Amino acid sequence: MATYVQDQSIKTERKPLNNPQTILVAGGIAVALILTIFLAFTQHIMQPILALIGVGLGFTLFHARFGFTSAFRRIASVGNGQSMRAHMVMLAVACTLFAPILAIGTTFFGTEANGYVSPIGVSLLVGAFLFGIGMQLGGGCASGTLYAVGGGRSVMFITLIFFIIGSTIAAAHFDFWMVDMPSAEPFSLATSTGLGYGGAWAVSMLLFGLIAYITIRIEKKRKPPKMAPVPSAIGWKRIFRGSWPLFAAAIVLAALNALTLLTRGTPWGVTSAFTLWGSKAAEAIGFDVASWGYWQDSTAALQASIFADTTTVLNFGVILGAFIASAAGGLFTFTKITPGNAAASVIGGLLMGYGARLAFGCNVGAYFGGIASFSGHGYIWGVMALGGTFLALRLRPLFGLSVPKPKDTFC
Fold first, then answer.
1. 3-state class of 361 per DSSP?
2. Is the pTM value of this prediction over 0.85?
3. Measuring CA to CA, how many Å separate 343 from each of 208, 340, 350, 400?
4. For residue 269, what are the contacts with CB-CB under 8 A and spacing of at least 6?
5. How far is CA 179 from CA 90, 123, 165, 224, in A?
6. I need a labelling partner for 202 at 20 to 30 A (CA). Which of 43, 122, 302, 371 fits?
């Protein structure tokens, strides 16, 4: 009998393929088209393009169950590195695509292309560690929260609400962390070392290879269970029905991130929109949000429509893409909320929101986007988030949340 590890959040993958929820699929596509048309007539032309990219991101994330949270949990708990190696493929493809874009420095619309290269300091260390704890308690990372909401996982609505609240609180504390706490200058493998983007790409490939090799060595030592195989359609139908291979999804996500960079001039991000949403809500109930340090250089965003915000549009697209994918697989359903996972979602959401603002982003903006942009802070983010994961594994049982065990068997 084969031994597998599978997270509680994806047990539905063991079930046979369900019939498509046709009405929901049609409704999701209709909403996506209405959003795209609305943006085309009311916003800059890049906004409808970003909405469609977001749909592609959400569709891919759901079909592959491409997890950042689960990847960190599996390597930390039982030593299974399959998902981490998929991360390395994703990062390798992204760096390969980002390098010429950043070297040329222009986008489809003639604006400047800039990667995510952020300072390395106390805020990064604390924020990434808090985020690592939060994503293991909250049941998903930033992108995971969005696609789980799109898939109907009820408890993730709680995570999302408190993610927004935590991010807003951190924006109010912005000056303390960014001004009062020690910080070094941003470090780029490409521009801070003299290697250029070609040399930075070569170093990055070596680092990804080394990390992949380390995960293989860990697996040989710990002999972890394998990830459970999941049902899927055959041939081209697999695009719409069932699970995608992790490595295929890794390539698609990297390509869509590069397309985002070419469209709006910065890589894919998630959590800055949460800060905007929360800050607008705080302003509406009487807080002097414009006086917060976080908004000193971008007060116009507070006054503009949320549909003018590129990250907001991407987020809406991710939710819609995941909804369409889940309905196409016959998997959209609202799940049960228990007191334990609700409490964990509140704490996890707050920690992720607060941590993301301190760490210059989340698993997408800081880890994925940072490393793809050849920034040193992306690697440090990953190490600190992994550290937070180890601590969170001890906390999860307190809320009735499962932790993968070496002898877990799913048949």
1. coil
2. yes
3. 36, 5, 11, 10
4. 116, 311, 314, 361, 362, 364, 365, 369
5. 34, 10, 22, 44
6. 122
Quick one: which of 150, 53, 73, 165 has its CA closest to 363? 73
Task: Identify the helix (H) or strand (E) that includes residue 269.
Answer: none
Helices within 230-375 (DSSP H only): 246-264, 271-284, 299-303, 310-328, 339-358, 369-372
Q: Tokens for 394?
A: 């001890």
- The answer to whether 113 touches 102, Cβ cutoff 8 Å, is yes
22-60 residue pLDDT tens: 999 999 999 999 999 999 999 999 999 999 999 999 999
pLDDT(409) > 60 = no
What amino acid occupies position 397? Answer: P
Is the Cβ–Cβ distance between 4 and 226 less than 8 Å? yes
Apex CA 316: angle with CA 332 and CA 325, to 5°? 30
pLDDT band at 239 (very low <50, low <70, confident <90, very high): confident
